[in-house]
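User: Let's play a game. I give you a shape written as tokens, and you guess the letters that built it. Ready? Here's round one.
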């Protein structure tokens, strides 16, 4: 749209002239405003807004206006950086949705120093089928992404990072979805160094997987994760100096494969708690805890099965969990009364509790006590967790050398053979744990980690065939260039990495891909959550 000699003044002006299927190209430069996107594409022909090749459009806001207003449907916006330089406007949003919209993709956004990064709500506004992907929100003052007061449905956050949230338990949160939100999926997302609540999701049909929360400076009153009407939390790493996970009673929850570490010194704080109020007193609740590691310093694990005034119990199933209480005065609150519990199996109550295979430990644990973790004592360098480093299956380890390993449930360490393989699974090295070479030598060496399915294409250096990665370390030959374009886009060739011949034995051959419907990159990637299994 426009010409090289006479471009439109802003993307908003260009969008007034856009038709379905058009692309608005952003030139490199610094701009005071983005404007409003008010023309809609169609399901088959969305309107695309993107930088020029290798371009860097930077929108720097001086006043209270939004950098980007979304008021149309069927849009794809890529590669935008937004910075607000007016520090006194604590509530101003940098991106706002102002009309009912659907089918929006926002990717590769870099948003800095806003009151709110993306505001999805206005009175009577609905947002349906929104994806925010590969984006970061740094130094927000109230919210990173918020939907409260309007309807948000089928919202998917994938590889989003909110960092250095400045709010200190003052009503904000890194990610906030209110009671009218439905089908919210949060995947491979990080909330780092937030001063307040990290993730609050109060709606229905919630799925959170591979979430990372690290808030060492959080207030003791802040909460890392709050669910309000049920949901699922899988394979997540939650470490906070405040309270950990809070679940509103009277709903159905599933927590599986999570590490929850609460460092609060507040006696009312909990690493994990199910809380009831008058509104939930007559609603039965269901809680499944399976294979979690729940660690608390001076707080508790609170799973009430019967409380005064409750007419419906919380039906609780606990399977193969590890509860670690750093302070002997802490414990498990399983009946509505605080109680020191050196063995979780001593819990009683009117609810149904299956305590199969759970372990509770107070003080320094023995390695065999904690589902075969590595526990490296470090009395001369005390830290928050009983003066030692405790490593559970799923941790990334590094000794004095450069190689990073995955410590897996099979008790072995699995090497990441290259930086490219590592980055197909993890965006950075923030959570890599360094242990002594002596401790590392005691862990048996397993097979190498292979590329995560659905992320990159590969070829062997001595073989011109291009392969997609399938589950179980499989290589699937893509037989034609047309299929590669359909699956990985027009620039698919830039996504091809070479595998040295020496690492070819890490893979096995799978069925070739002759048609695009025989391989789905997003599904393959979403289903691959364990690097040791591929």
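Assistant: Ready! My guess for every position:
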């Amino acid at each position: 749209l426009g010409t090289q000699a006479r471009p439109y003044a802003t993307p908003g002006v260009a969008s007034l002239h856009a038709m379905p299927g058009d692309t608005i190209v952003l030139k490199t430069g610094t701009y005071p405003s983005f404007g409003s996107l008010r023309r809609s594409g169609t399901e088959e022909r969305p309107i695309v807004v993107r930088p020029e090749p290798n371009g860097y459009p930077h929108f720097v806001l001086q006043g209270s206006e939004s950098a980007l207003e979304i008021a149309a449907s069927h849009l794809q916006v890529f590669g935008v950086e937004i910075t607000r330089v007016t520090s006194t406007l604590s509530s101003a949003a940098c991106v706002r949705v102002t009309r009912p919209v659907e089918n929006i993709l926002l990717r590769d956004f870099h948003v800095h120093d806003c009151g709110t990064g993306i505001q999805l709500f206005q009175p009577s506004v609905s947002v349906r089928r929104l994806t925010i992907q590969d984006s970061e929100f740094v130094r927000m003052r109230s919210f990173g992404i918020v939907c409260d007061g309007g309807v948000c449905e089928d919202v998917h956050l994938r590889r989003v990072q909110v960092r250095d949230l400045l709010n200190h338990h003052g009503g904000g949160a890194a990610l906030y979805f209110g009671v009218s939100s439905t089908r919210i999926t949060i995947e491979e997302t990080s909330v780092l160094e937030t001063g307040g609540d990290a993730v609050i999701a109060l709606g229905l049909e919630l799925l959170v997987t591979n979430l990372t929360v690290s808030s060492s400076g959080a207030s003791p009153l802040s909460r890392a994760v709050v669910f309000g009407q049920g949901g699922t939390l899988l394979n997540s790493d939650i470490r906070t100096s405040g309270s950990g996970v809070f679940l509103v009673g009277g709903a159905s929850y599933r927590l599986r494969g999570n590490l929850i570490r609460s460092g609060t010194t507040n006696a009312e704080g909990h690493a994990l708690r199910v809380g009831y109020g008058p509104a939930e007193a007559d609603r039965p609740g269901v809680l499944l805890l399976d294979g979690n590691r729940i660690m608390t310093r001076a707080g508790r694990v609170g799973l009430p099965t019967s409380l005064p005034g409750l007419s419906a119990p919380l039906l609780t199933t606990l399977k193969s969990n590890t509860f670690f209480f750093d302070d002997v005065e802490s414990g498990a609150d399983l009946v509505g009364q605080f109680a020191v519990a050196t063995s979780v199996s001593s819990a009683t109550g009117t609810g149904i509790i299956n305590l199969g295979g759970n372990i509770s430990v107070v003080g320094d644990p023995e390695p065999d006590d904690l589902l075969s973790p590595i526990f490296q004592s470090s009395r001369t360098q005390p830290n928050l967790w009983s003066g030692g480093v405790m490593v559970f299956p799923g941790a990334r380890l590094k000794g004095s050398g450069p190689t990073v390993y995955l410590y897996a449930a099979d008790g072995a360490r699995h090497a990441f053979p290259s930086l490219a393989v590592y980055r197909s699974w993890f965006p950075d090295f923030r959570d890599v744990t360094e242990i002594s070479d002596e401790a590392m030598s005691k862990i048996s060496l397993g097979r190498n980690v292979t590329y995560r399915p659905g992320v990159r294409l590969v070829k062997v250096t001595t073989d011109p065939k291009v392969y997609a990665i399938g589950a179980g370390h499989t290589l699937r030959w893509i037989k034609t260039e047309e299929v590669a374009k359909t699956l990985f886009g027009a620039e698919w060739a830039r996504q091809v990495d070479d595998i040295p011949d020496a690492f070819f034995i890490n893979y096995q051959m799978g069925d070739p891909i002759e048609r695009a419907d025989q391989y789905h990159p997003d599904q393959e990637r979403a289903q691959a959550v364990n690097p040791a299994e591929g």
